[in-house]
Structures are given as C-alpha cells and as structure tokens.
Amino acid sequence: MKDKSKGKFYFKVKTLKQTPSLAQMEEKKLHELAGLSTFRHFNKGDFIFLEGEDLSCLYIVQDGRVKLFKSSLSGKSHTFSIAHLGDTLHGIVLFTGEPCWIAAQALDDVVLLCIGKKDFLTFTDRHPSILRKIIKILGDQINSTNLRLTDVISMDVKQRVVNVLNMLSNKFGSTLLFTNDELAELAGTTTETTIRVIGQLKRSGLISTYRGKIHIKDAPRLKDLSSDFIMI
C-alpha cells in the first residue's frame, strides 16, 4: 500500500514538473504542492467545468487531452486551445474570483491533478516568486487566446485551418489525433470547409490521413504557407 502511495506521489511531482510556471521550482516546494493535490478522473466527453461556474481548484492535466471552448448564443462552439500534460485549465479565474468564461471537456479519458483553490492561493501567498511566474504564464495564455480571436476575425478561413495544423503539430508532434469537427472548431469554420482544406493539403503532399489520424509529412512547407493560401 505504501509503494502504491509513493507511486501516486511520484506521478504528481512529475506532472508539476511539466507545468511551465512550476517546472523550475525547488524540489521541496514541488513536494509541498504535490502533497496538497489529488487525482480526478474524467471519461471521454465529460465536462470538467462549464461557462459561468466558479472554479474550486487548479486543474493540471496529467494524462489525456482537454478541450477549452466557448459556445455562442446560436449554439456554435469555438475551441480556444487543447490542453495536455502539464497544462493548467483556465487557472486565471482563481485569482480574479470571476466565474469561468470558457468550458472544459475531456477529449480522451483524462486524469487531472487538482489543487484546492484555498490551498493553492495560500501556497502562492507564501511563495511570491512562484506567483509571479504563474501570473506570467496565465497572461501568456490569455494573450494566445486573444491572438486566436484575431485570427478568426481577420484571416482567411482556409489559412486558419493551416495555422491550426501548425499549432497542433508544434504541440503534439507530426501525428495528430483530431477529427475534422475538432479542427473546424479550432479554426472557427465549418466541418465542410475543413474537409476541403484537408483534401487540398493532401493533394499537395503536405499531409496524409489514415483512420482518423492526420500525419504532417512536410512541416517546413506547411509552416511556409502564407496568408495568401488559396484553395485549389
């Protein structure tokens, strides 16, 4: 039983070390924070939190992928980011006290590290140097979200699909396990348009698809595509 507990603690510390704002923290503080955390499991498709909810803890992804998205009044959904190992989920609201303005849903069976809001804020109060790093990372996440919104407003819809593929390959590697519906949500377009763009990229030899997987065959060329990308 003790070995099992040690194993869980090891995975907690390992997950915290994958979190950008916590990775450089000294071992003693990492262990302290790990001791405040628990694991939570969600099945594929489960909602972790919804828009308008108060977040009761800091969530850090230990295993699986989580979609962070917002729904419009018309019922359409726009995905802002896909979180994976070490990513935090909308942690900025722990500091603002505001309700969540986006929702989170498990794309796979997901394991999250959960640190209670009160415990986490007390920890950051005791360690202000860590707090500054955390705020910077959360600020970068907000900036990234704003840039994604700018893309949706100003860029050609076909270019947005290309940008999403580049973004995902930078984060997850050359093989992407995303459906056309998920890509469309990330690009802020329709599934039909996404399928057409994917088809064009396949004909150009930049990507290939097989059984629900997208493989980036020529990452440099894909990155070189400019905003004047034209559908053929």
Radius of gyration: 19 Å
Judged by helices, strands and strand pairing, the structural class is alpha+beta
Largest sheet: 4 strands, antiparallel
What's the end-to-end separation, in Å? 61 Å
Can you give the helix content as a percent range? 40-55%
Which runs of at least 5 residues are low in confidence (pLDDT < 50)?
227-232
**Which series of helices and strands comes N to C?**
HHEEEEEHEEHHHEHHEEH
Structure description:
By secondary structure, the chain is an alpha+beta fold. The chain is built from nine helices and ten strands. The protein has helices at 2-17, 27-35, 92-96, 117-126, 128-154, 157-172, 180-187, 191-203, 219-224; strands spanning 37-42, 47-49, 57-63, 66-71, 77-83, 103-106, 110-116, 175-176, 207-210, 213-216. The protein has a four-stranded antiparallel β-sheet. A three-stranded antiparallel β-sheet has the order 1-7-3. It has a three-stranded antiparallel β-sheet with strand order 8-10-9. α1 packs across α2 (27-35), α6 (157-172) packs across α7 (180-187) and α6 (157-172) packs across α8 (191-203). It is globular, with a radius of gyration of 19 Å. Mean pLDDT is 86; it is low at 227-232.
